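Worked problem 6 (solution included).
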Amino acid sequence: MKRLITSRRRALLIGFLTGLVVSGCGTGELSVFESSRSPRGDHEIVLHLAESSIPSGPYHIFVDVRVDGGASMRLIETTIANDGVPPTRRDIALRWVDNTHALLCLHESDLADRGTRIIIASPPRAEQIERC
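Solution. The predicted structure is:
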């Protein structure tokens, strides 16, 4: 006689599998890829990079902003494709335009460039832009 899976066992199995999948899609250790102060030196942008927990998964990019020496705020979380080699400053470019505006440009192999304008205001914000 076949043994039926009870609803409790089914829930535990689904929970376990979901946890396994979600934990496998996370990031590895976070490292500072670049840190840059505004032209006047009163604001700072720190770009962190982390490998994916899954083999050949995308690199994860986190951008933190510190305004006027205050607490750091996570402004951007995105990914860049893994083309087999770690990203360089040619692939990920961060540049201040003036004291309150910066550009983050992602140049991915075989994909269109992506750009984000970082605006230091109250509160800081990020806007997608067409070109970099």
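Discussion: The chain is about 15% helix and 45% strand.
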